[in-house]
User: Fold this.
Amino acid sequence: MELTVYLAGQIHDDWRQQLKAKAADRELPIAFVGPQENHERSDDIGEAIMGKQPNSMYRDDAASSVNNFRTQVLLQKADAVIALFGEQYKQWNTAMDASAAIQLNKPLILVRPDSLIHPLKELSNKADVTVETIDQALDVLSYIYE
Assistant:
């Protein structure tokens, strides 16, 4: 049984590649999907599809609508979601994706460090499982195959 897991979280470092490599090392039958990881492509997609926008607000709005459409399709097809919250970046998109997963009744693994226990307490309480590392998130997924 192959699972599809949506990886929600910031796109500024290689945490997804690390997680995918570790899943491959464990030979887990998982397909991973997630947001557009090319930040420039994500920012430019609205104008690429709808043409030049009159100002930055409309440009952002056009890109957001296309990115939200993409996220909704991939979240709906996912069997589970891992939402990673780190300390370096503001995680507005991660919170939105985690909330959408909850609304869609998708099993949610929340990954967050100790320092974010308080600010994420309500979201963590709604998640199915909350862990501190991507290794622990993979342990949760591995348990499905035992």
In short: The domain at 3-37+79-144 is CATH 3.40.50.450 (Rossmann fold). The mean pLDDT is 95. The chain is about 50% helix and 15% strand.
